[in-house]
């Protein structure tokens, strides 16, 4: 395997500059929307894919806030979902009565987020908002029901490609790309 990272990429869908501009816009919107809330919001990143987005996002939100992580297992190492996800790493913080913003890399079928929302709702959260960096609306299988007065924030609508970079992997590689791209077909193996 060639070790030059960029040489694995067929095409770039969003550059690092485009990503950071959009993240700053979303962060401003969240700052506005939660400014009047009585308690600091809790940002819950979905590991591992959301780690870069979560980091960039919270640095730009001008509010006191907390951060936690969850992990949901839904994909194997390939590009196809294996159905109903399960929670394999639970929250550290108590979320009862909290306004949670679930931070996700990409919404595809919607199964992962629906499962996580149900999980949070059962713990007694006040609201659940979604902040997804990418959305593939044409591939949705389940309707995503927010909790309380939760909102849906998204970065970009993604065409129906399997994308990598900015936290997202193929077989646990490419998460460190600072942009979003599509791999050359020889590397989807
Ligand atoms: P869903 O449960 O909505 O079908 O899938 C959500 C998860 O599948 C995402 O959090 C992400 O980890 C993975 N996923 C969906 N589409 C893509 C994609 O195009 N690229 C990568 N790397 N992961 C994806
Ligand atoms: Mg994910």
Automatic annotation (TrEMBL):
Key word Hydrolase present: no
CDD domains from the UniProt entry: PRTases_typeI
Enzyme Commission identifier(s): 2.4.2.8
Names of required cofactors: Mg(2+)
Cellular localization per UniProt: Cytoplasm
Gene Ontology CC entries for this record: cytosol
Molecular function (Gene Ontology), one example: nucleotide binding
Top EC class for this record: transferase
Keyword Nucleotide-binding tagged: yes
InterPro entries per UniProt: HGPRT (IPR050408), Hxn_phspho_trans (IPR005904), PRTase-like (IPR029057), PRTase_dom (IPR000836)
Domain Phosphoribosyltransferase: 16-170
SUPFAM superfamilies attached to this UniProt entry: PRTase-like
Known catalytic reactions: IMP + diphosphate = hypoxanthine + 5-phospho-alpha-D-ribose 1-diphosphate
GO biological process: GMP salvage; guanine salvage; hypoxanthine metabolic process; IMP salvage; purine ribonucleoside salvage
Keyword annotations of the record: Cytoplasm, Glycosyltransferase, Magnesium, Metal-binding, Nucleotide-binding, Purine salvage, Transferase
Superkingdom: Eukaryota
Involved pathway(s): Purine metabolism; IMP biosynthesis via salvage pathway; IMP from hypoxanthine: step 1/1
Chief localization: cytoplasm
Family of this protein: Belongs to the purine/pyrimidine phosphoribosyltransferase family.
PANTHER family: HYPOXANTHINE PHOSPHORIBOSYLTRANSFERASE, HYPOXANTHINE-GUANINE PHOSPHORIBOSYLTRANSFERASE
Name of the protein this chain belongs to: Hypoxanthine phosphoribosyltransferase
């Amino acid at each position: 395997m060639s070790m030059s990272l960029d040489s694995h990429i067929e095409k770039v869908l969003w550059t690092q500059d485009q990503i950071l501009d959009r993240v700053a816009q979303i962060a401003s919107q969240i700052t506005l929307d939660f400014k009047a809330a009585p308690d600091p919001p809790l940002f819950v990143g979905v590991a591992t894919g959301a780690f870069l987005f979560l980091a960039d996002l919270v640095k730009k939100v001008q509010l006191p806030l907390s951060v936690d992580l969850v992990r949901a297992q839904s994909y194997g190492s390939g590009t196809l979902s294996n159905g109903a996800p399960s929670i394999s790493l639970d929250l550290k913080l108590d979320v009862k009565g909290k306004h949670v913003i679930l931070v996700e890399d990409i919404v595809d079928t919607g199964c992962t987020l629906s499962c996580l929302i149900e999980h949070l709702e059962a713990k007694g959260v006040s609201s659940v908002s979604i902040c997804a960096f990418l959305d593939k609306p044409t591939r949705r299988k389940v309707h995503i029901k927010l909790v309380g007065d939760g909102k849906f924030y998204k970065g970009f609508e993604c065409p129906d490609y399997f994308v990598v970079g900015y936290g997202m992997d193929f077989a646990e590689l490419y998460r460190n790309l600072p942009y979003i791209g599509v791999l050359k077909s020889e590397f989807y193996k």
